[in-house]
Amino acid sequence: MITIVNYEMGNLRSIVNAFAFLGVSTRITSDLRDVETAEKLLIPGVGAFNAGMTNLNRLGLVGAIREAVQTKGVPVLGICLGMQLLAESSTEDGFTEGFGMVRAKVDRFSSRAEYRLPHIGFNQVELVGATQSLFKGIGQRKDFYFVHGFRVEATGADFETGITSYGDVFVASIEHENVFGVQFHPEKSQSNGLRLLENFARI
């Protein structure tokens, strides 16, 4: 059972449909007790970092998610904005603190005329680093679907498992112990995305 956190900013139905296709049970919730008893957590997200953290705090879920992941060791997968929220902070709509589960910061793409923002569409993810649990059976360089205007800057940190280039080189995926994240949308990335979601379900 994968508990999908509903903080009013996620494309929830397509994620549920993808897991259903794989035969994986899910529940969508903003209930504190569901988060506290979760076997696996998924934080989706479409929108701004500041609004995301504001909603999570308003719903009283920040502490419960931290407790589940950092104390109990519950695996968590952040998707798009959900991955960014796992970082320390973002400059989007002013400085905002995130969960701080990985030592990374979120910032706007560099302004380059030839690269339209937000970054929308399929782009190649290149695997880096030693641990790539989410990409088992997928391959070293594969395309996934992106929609975002801010990014985690690639620094070569140990938690970076995938990078993508769109004007800037940025972090496409992260893995640190039980913390996982992808900047792209696996639920919209056809067979590669389905395999990634299946790999998370098996962790």
Q: What is the number of helical segments per DSSP (H or I, 4+ residues)?
A: 6
CATH homologous superfamily placement: Class I glutamine amidotransferase (GATase) domain
Largest sheet: 9 strands, mixed
Count structural domains. 1
Secondary structural class: alpha/beta
Distance between the termini: 12 Å
Radius of gyration: 15 Å
Short overview:
This protein is an alpha/beta fold and 203 residues long. The chain has helices spanning 12-22, 32-36, 49-58, 62-71, 81-85, 190-202; strands at residues 2-5, 26-29, 40-43, 76-79, 89-90, 96-97, 105-108, 119-127, 141-148, 150-152, 160-166, 168-176, 179-182.
Describe the model.
This protein is α/β, with parallel strands linked by helices and 203 residues long. It is 27% helix and 32% strand. The chain has helices spanning 12-22, 32-36, 49-58, 62-71, 81-85, 190-202; strands spanning 2-5, 26-29, 40-43, 76-79, 89-90, 96-97, 105-108, 119-127, 141-148, 150-152, 160-166, 168-176, 179-182. The chain has a nine-stranded mixed β-sheet. The protein has a four-stranded mixed β-sheet with strand order 6-5-7-10, with helices on one face. It is globular.
Kindly list the characteristics that best describe this protein.
203 residues, alpha/beta, Rossmann fold, four-stranded mixed beta sheet
Secondary structure elements and pairings:
Elements: E1 2-5, H1 12-22, E2 26-29, H2 32-36, E3 40-43, H3 49-58, H4 62-71, E4 76-79, H5 81-85, E5 89-90, E6 96-97, E7 105-108, E8 119-127, E9 141-148, E10 150-152, E11 160-166, E12 168-176, E13 179-182, H6 190-202
Parallel strand pairs: 1-2, 1-3, 3-4, 4-13, 5-7
Antiparallel strand pairs: 5-6, 7-10, 8-9, 8-11, 11-12, 12-13
